[in-house]
Amino acid sequence: MVSVREESGYAVECKETGECFTLPLERVETAIRHRDCEVIKPADVERRKALLKHTDGLECVEQLSEKDQRIVQARLALVIAQNELRAEGVKLTQRSMNKSGTHRRLLLTRAEQIAPGHNFLGTRRGGKLASGFDVPQGRTLTNYRDVYHRFDQNPVVLADRDRMKGRREPRLCKWQERFIDYVLNRWHDPKQPKLASVYKLATKVFHRSPQEMAQDINFPSITTIRTRAKAISGVVTVIGRGGARHGTNTKGAGSTDVRALGFGEKFETDQYLLSIFTSGDGVVRAEIIDPKEAPQELADNEIRRCWLHVILDIATREVLGWVMSETADADHSKALLRMATRDKTKEKVRYGCKQDPVPPVRLGLALADNGTATRNADVYAGQLGMGMAVMTARAHQPMDKQTVERLFGTTQWDVLNFRPGYTGSRPGELTGYEPKPSAEISHDDLYGTLTRYFIDEYPFRPHRGTGMYGATPRQKQEEALQLYGPMEPPSQRDRCLHLGAKVQATTTSEGVRAFNIPFNSTELQRFAAGRPKRVTVHLDPDDLRKVHVTAEGEDAVIEARLSMTVFKDQTLEEAIEIMGTATKSNPILRELHDRHLSEAMKRRALESGFFPDSRDPSSYQTLAQLEARASKLLQVETRPAAYIGATAAPGHLMSRGRTSGVVPARPAGTAPFKPPSASTPPRASTSSPRFAGQADGPPETGATSAPDPDDIKAMTFGPIKDSKL
């Protein structure tokens, strides 16, 4: 408030803190010229206070109801008619404007001309008296004119003030008002107690002095306290009984900030547990499964609720990607980013969409919440590697991600609410509907429904969000591309290295295998040089035509192409499904095939003649014979030093007769040689050389004696009947 105007400026005083300081003239004049301030004279302030006191807080006609506004219009027409007649020289008095006065009809006729439709004259139409405005007597008409001019011709003063009738002073004592405040303060608790229970207990513990009891012994009624509770602001009640976080989410002021202009400049991503059960045929089943052996993919007839991952462009409200999964994790968040940066024609063709999907785009600023699906090292590394700026939304602040949060509500009420298996937006909402037994659609059918909604329907609906002004997302996309230019999608190399799947593999002569899918190239063969080397394969699960290979100590990124063309147009999930389906079969049919295979192999084995009859004992003697032959090969032959074999006389080496040979002298102390009898086969020492016709056996014990020469010849050479040559 300006207190004094000086030559150097204005001496002003802050009405809130009482601080006094001086503002330069130039600053004040500039603020007035730019309309950065409001100049209010003290007289205007006093008149405004008087007006608000007269009207009980009303300042303009628009604050009244439609019925009261029409009454004000009729009374204003009567006031204007009085002014015009007085200006024309007609002397209007209270008596002349009465029902029996001379100027009343003249006044009503002029008012009818000013504001037709109020029927001031009360004319008859169709034999009936038409309803019209009930014009009061002249005293009241004069009072309308005086009040209208006293308050600077503000029509709001012509409204009725019936609401100000009655007793104005408080009807309750001070201690009763304090009791009401005490009850309402206890009622505003996060535990959300019942008001009636709080009231009953408060009457037992509320302290009153004897003087207060003498004023009034009764407590205020519960109805009075309920009326006071309803008069409290809804925001205060929500914060007091629901907590600050719930109050911010439900009663927050919202935001009208236009946060992005270019297509792909900023995007929001979030996950939502769909309020619908999906199944194959709607039959509830129970099955005991082993978590270690249970497959990761969804079963055909498995009833469950799935997660929907969505990425939304802020500038155009276009849905850039959508993924449905069993859990909310980093792999599906990366799949969502890959979908936003690639072409989605495959989804259009597969699910029969009529319109073209949103084109791929390079993403700029990423905004996500603190969930585990987005706040992890893998997702952050992929986003930063793709050149995105990462921004994390605050916890329990839905206004930070209001655009994508609104999309989930729209999807639920437009799509899921009409499908079998819908669960409701909260537990216990559907009291007469059982969602699990009603589940009929499969997981792929639900994904197809969402795909058609995000491609054919949602981009062509008028959007009333901030900055959209009723335009459709597709219209806003075309406008953004025209004004700010396109953001080219990332290259396949960047997608593989930063958003793709990584797997450790070893090079072979056929290249390298990732997920059992072969890839090969000339550069890879030159790097391997015919030796197995450990490498890392970067694979785009949405496009198997090309992979990138990195290795420790190798600077260059090696490119390899798919060498099995059957997977050329498949995704990684589809390729794994094809390979898995090839190994799975009907158990009964598989048993029949195994029996056919066993019979064919048995027939081939018998026809080959290689396998003898297993019931023949000779089939088990080969190994024993080989062991006997092996033991012979292991024997080491030596001659004892005390015995030298018989030698032939000179000239009789090849003689076949009984020629006496030279026998060495028998050592002293030895027994004479005894030839073996006919019934006892000759035996030889294991340390002596073996002769033809000599049988195996252990050596004889006792002293060794020199043999007879004739016996030696008989033992050495047997009769030869057939020639050996």
UniProtKB/TrEMBL annotation:
Residue stretches making up the Transposase-like Mu C-terminal domain: 501-553
InterPro entries noted in UniProt: RNaseH-like_sf (IPR012337), RNaseH_sf (IPR036397), Transposase-like_Mu_C (IPR015378)
Residue segments, region Disordered: 651-725
One Pfam short name: Mu-transpos_C
Biased amino acid composition, Low complexity: 680-690
Domain of life from the UniProt record: Bacteria
Molecular-function GO term, any one: nucleic acid binding
Annotated protein name in UniProt: Mu transposase, C-terminal
Taxonomic source organism: Salipiger abyssi
